[in-house]
Write a structure and sequence with these properties.
Blueprint (H helix, E strand, L loop, with lengths): L25 H4 L10 E6 L5 E7 L6 E7 L7 E2 L12 E4 L5 E6 L2 E6 L5 E5 L7 E5 L5 E6 L2 E6 L4 E9 L11 H9 L1 H23 L8 E2 L4 E8 L5 E8 L9 E4 L8 E4 L13 E6 L4 E4 L14 H6 L11 E2 L7 E3 L6 E7 L4 E8 L4 E9 L11 E3 L6 E5 L6 E5 L5 E3 L7 E6 L5 E6 L8 E6 L5 E3 L7 E6 L5 E8 L2 E9 L6 E2 L6 H4 L7 E5 L8 E6 L10 E7 L16 H12 L3 E5 L9 H4 L9 H16 L2 E11 L1 H12 L6 E5 L10 H8 L6 H7 L11 E7 L7 H13 L5 E6 L9 H19 L2
Parallel strand pairs: 12-13, 39-40, 39-41, 41-42, 42-43, 43-44
Antiparallel strand pairs: 1-2, 2-3, 3-4, 5-6, 6-7, 7-8, 9-10, 10-11, 11-12, 14-15, 15-18, 16-17, 18-19, 20-22, 21-22, 22-23, 23-24, 25-26, 26-27, 27-28, 29-30, 30-31, 31-32, 33-34, 34-35, 35-36, 37-38, 38-40
Helix pairs in contact: 2-3
């Protein structure tokens, strides 16, 4: 096996643990995580910034309680009494521009808080109805919100809720379709013509009275019955309504049935599965602009989007002898979150759109009087544009647009002024995300990983000159943040490898953080853990170094070689190598156990992982499992060259995407990986969902070769080593069928040294400690049996 040169690593990151770790048992590692202590969940500010509130799970139950702490003062935490709940603020809050009032949604109910007096007014008691799209009107005295397809307003002075606009995906009942027989009757029978004219006149007069009377609700606006209404967005000045439409009857594709064998009834039961990739492709959407003053409805043409008429998949269509794409490429409105943003004064409108083929993302403004889209930014990628980091909006001046873009290869913050001048406020080989602007538009706070890709802090950037600096210093473990109502403080979630998310406050301009919580149990805090060493493994394939977490003894015995275990995180586009608390905290404890038992362990952020830029993410385009395996082979070589790893005894394990990669390692590099545990693994990407898979492999009809080279079942004949497959039988993400089909393939190939462990009551993420224990007992026994000389 090729030996790599030793890597140069930041000395501080490679500091070895000073004390021996506390032994961990498998039963303890896989127990209910209550023994660790609950993470601090959603956290938010009190209206005056003097206190914070947060949610915390109860020990031994799934119930959550609300707690409060004094901002900037540790040790004054208490559980909120039930009698106080009706007076609390909310995590869902919208401020007016002057920051004198704030709208809150709590339990589906709508409130407004006066930020000077603290007075709280309830605007609406939802009673099961869902309130959406809450915003301040242009005058900032009124509040607008949507229920279903109807818009309402509430005025602070009048304390009255009024209908503002209503759209319907239906024919106007007062407009009749052309009918030759009816026309003849009206032409020949004068009485019928007179009765119709009287009805029309009465209806017209009623509409005149409605428009003249401010106490009346506006009549619905009918868009026709050939479409469905997906969303609508009212301008803060109340003049315009942008409606997002879709096809009326979208074909969802064939849906399979997932059997449940262990049920309360004692009989087999069946649930609908999701549809597969290529069988539920997104349909194109449209935009209609409604002038509420004139009730005129106009379609916004998408033909102006640059590149919309060019098919980036034309060569693949031709290769498969498929018909060329006819007309313009279908487009959907945005990804997730706000895809339509009005300026604060309601004069400007920005929309984010993306091509259904995932190759383009556009931001366009709208010329409202002319009802014309005006493209202002295009992000295009031969592989796929990122479905993350797509935030955008207007600065308080209502003329400057800001947005995140990967056009440089990394997610960074840009502004575009009224004259069309674009400025990159941040730049470099790091990622900006989760942007929050000051009320005056002069400062933006964001998450950043400037120091190293694996260390996250809160950064502040000035709009004037783009100067950027870290304002938090929490050892790179910041998870998210929230500005205080006066924007002078930050409330941050932070964590560490053995510290579940906690909260702290610090000055928004930077300064010492006051840590408000430590919810770990006494027993967990008392333990000594093997701290992961953050290492940058060099790549032999022209890529940047592959960041990884190394678990090893404090001292390696001279002359001894150690069996190597490689852990593979799931989700593909996820970052597990960071200074934060891992979603794989059980696996981290299992890695401690493996080190105790004489192994060395490496956990890598292979290509496709989050946090390393666009090139890192889309390296796997049309070849899933290939660049990632190259990275793991580099990791094995590095362990052999630098950590006394035994090249003849290498194991690998992981779940979901990690299970898929375990398959690829065992089947595509069978002479390197001796044993592997593939948990809830994808064996054939044609069985996975559309939204994720089509980004990377296109669709099976267009790109069958990409699916063939990326699906482990195509390599099953190469199995040489020892393979464990473990899968929940009611998994509605990666279907149990994936593992069953692989099992049948291995049976037909007469393969030995493999087993399938099914879990009848577990879904994709296991819940029961007994299932966790059984699964990891099997993994541990597999490694002990096969990797120890």
């Amino acid at each position: 096996m090729k030996q790599l040169p030793a890597v140069t690593v930041l000395a501080a990151l490679l500091a070895l643990p000073a004390a021996a770790s506390t032994p961990i048992t498998l039963d303890q590692a896989m127990a209910n995580p209550d023994w660790i202590g609950p993470a601090v969940e959603t956290a938010w500010w009190r209206w005056d910034g003097k206190q914070v509130f947060y949610k915390q799970k109860r020990d031994g139950a799934q119930l959550r309680d609300t707690w409060t702490a004094d901002a900037g003062k540790a040790g004054r935490n208490r559980k909120v009494d039930d009698a106080e709940l009706g007076k609390l603020d909310s995590a869902t809050v919208i401020y007016d521009q002057k920051r004198t009032h704030a709208i809150m949604l709590r339990n589906g109910d709508l409130f407004e808080r006066d930020l000077k007096s603290g007075a709280l007014v309830q605007i609406r008691r939802a009673n099961g109805t869902q309130i959406d799209a809450v915003q301040y009107a242009k005058d900032e005295r009124s509040i607008q919100f949507r229920i279903g397809d109807d818009w309402f307003g509430w005025d602070r002075a009048e304390r009255l809720q009024v209908p503002l606009a209503s759209v319907r995906a239906a024919k106007d009942p007062h407009v009749q379709d052309p009918d030759a027989l009816r026309d003849m009757q009206l032409r020949l029978i004068a009485t019928l013509k007179r009765q119709k004219d009287e009805r029309d006149a009465a209806r017209a007069r009623a509409e005149e009275e409605r428009r003249a009377d401010p106490t009346r609700a506006p009549a619905p606006i009918y868009l026709g019955d050939k479409l469905s209404i997906l969303n609508s967005h009212l301008s803060p000045d109340g003049r315009w309504l942008l409606v997002v439409t879709g096809p009326k009857d979208a074909d969802k594709g064939r849906v399979g049935k997932m059997p449940k064998y262990v049920t309360e009834s004692g009989y087999e039961e069946f649930a609908d599965e999701r549809t597969r990739v290529g069988r539920n492709s997104p349909r194109g959407q449209g935009l209609k602009l409604v002038d509420l003053a004139t009730r005129e409805v106009k379609d916004l043409s998408l033909d102006v989007l640059p590149g919309i008429a060019t098919d980036p998949l034309a060569a693949l269509r031709a290769a498969q002898k498929l018909d060329p794409l006819k007309g313009k490429r279908p487009v959907t409105i945005g990804f997730s979150g706000d895809a339509v943003v009005w300026s604060p004064n309601g004069a400007k409108l920005a929309v984010m759109l993306r091509a259904v083929d995932n190759k383009d993302r556009w931001i366009a403004t709208v010329d409202l009087p002319r009802a014309v889209l005006q493209p202002v930014h295009r992000l295009t990628d031969d592989a796929w544009v990122n479905y993350d980091n797509n935030e955008f909006g207007w600065l308080p001046d209502s003329s400057t647009l800001w947005y995140l873009s990967e056009e440089s290869g990394y997610s960074h913050l840009y502004t575009r002024d009224a004259g069309g001048r674009v400025r990159a406020l941040t730049q470099g080989k790091w990622e900006a995300s989760d942007v929050a602007w000051s009320a005056d538009g002069q400062t933006a706070w964001m998450m950043c990983n400037r120091a190293t890709p694996v260390a996250y802090e809160v950064c502040a950037v000035t709009a004037r000159d783009g100067s950027t600096r870290e304002v938090s210093h929490l050892d790179g473990g910041v998870e998210d943040f929230r500005l205080s109502p006066d924007q002078r403080q930050l409330l941050v979630h932070y964590s560490a490898p053995y510290l579940p998310p906690q909260i702290a406050t610090l000055p928004a301009g930077g300064g010492t953080a006051v840590k408000l919580t430590d919810t770990r149990s006494t027993g967990f805090k008392a333990r000594e853990w093997i701290q992961p060493q953050f290492v940058a493994v060099p790549s032999t394939h022209g890529a940047d170094p592959v960041w990884a977490k190394l678990y090893r003894p404090a001292r390696l015995e001279p002359g001894k070689t150690y069996p190597v275990v490689m852990f593979v995180h799931g989700a593909g586009y996820l970052q597990n190598v960071s200074h934060r608390y891992s979603v794989y905290f059980r696996e981290q404890m299992f890695n401690n156990l493996l080190v105790q038992k004489g192994y060395v362990v490496l956990d890598m952020d292979y290509r496709a992982s989050k946090g390393y830029g666009a090139k890192w993410r889309n390296a796997i385009y049309r070849q899933m499992g290939h660049p990632e395996l190259d990275d793991y082979l580099d990791g094995v070589n590095w362990m052999v060259a630098n950590q006394q790893g035994d090249p003849n005894n290498v194991g690998i394990y992981g779940g979901s995407y990690g299970g898929f990669m375990t398959f690829m390692a065992m089947l595509r590099a069978p002479d390197v990986f001796k044993s592997g545990a593939a948990l809830r693994p994808v064996s054939d990407w044609t069985s996975y969902n559309h939204d994720y898979t089509a980004n990377i492999l296109n669709t099976p009809d267009l790109d069958p070769e990409a699916y063939k080279v990326s699906s482990p079942i195509e390599y099953a004949q190469n199995l040489k080593g020892n393979l464990l497959i473990a899968h929940g039988m009611v998994d509605d993400n990666v279907l149990f069928q994936d593992s069953v089909r692989m099992a049948q393939r291995l049976i037909e190939l007469k393969k030995d040294h493999w087993e399938l462990a099914p879990y009848p009551l577990e879904r994709h993420s296991f819940v029961q400690p007994e299932s966790w224990y059984d699964e990891y007992r099997r993994i541990y026994q597999l490694f002990e049996r096969t990797l120890k000389p």
